[in-house]
Amino acid sequence: MAPIQPTDPRRKRILYRATHRGTKESDAIIGGFFTEVVTGLPDDKLDEADALLDEADLDLMDWVMGRQPAPERLRNTLFDGVLAYYQRLAQPR
């Protein structure tokens, strides 16, 4: 079943930014996470989503894949959801 597409402009923009990061890996991980959650994000989390997507692509992927420690400011944010999504993808089937 295809994910529900957002109808409001801000969520559409967030989804576009998440799925057009610049590398296939980040599109799959960051974009995949936001594809699953963007329609259900509470309005108060949209600023957090925008801030996360403002991070440099290479930094995000280093943090997600554990090559560099994630900054403290990302703890207990949507970044935790991205990490969980990546860990789910990385598990052997």
CATH H-level superfamily: Flavinator of succinate dehydrogenase
Share of residues in strands = under 5%
N-to-C SSE string, H for helix and E for strand: HHHHH
What is the correct CATH architecture?
A: Orthogonal Bundle
- List segments where confidence is low: pLDDT < 50 over at least 5 consecutive residues: none
Output the CATH topology.
DNA polymerase, domain 1
How far apart lie the N and C ends? 20 Å
Radius of gyration: 13 Å
Structural class: mainly alpha
Helical fraction equals 55-70%
Architecture blueprint of SSEs:
Blueprint: H1 9-19, H2 24-37, H3 46-54, H4 57-64, H5 78-90
Helix pairs in contact: 1-2, 1-3, 2-5
Structure description:
There is one protein chain. The chain is mostly helical. It has one domain (9-90): Orthogonal Bundle (DNA polymerase, domain 1). Helix content is 59%, strand content 0%. The protein contains five helices and no strands. The radius of gyration is 13 Å and the shape is globular. The model has no long low-confidence stretch (mean pLDDT 92).
Give a brief rundown of this model.
The protein is mainly α and 93 residues long.
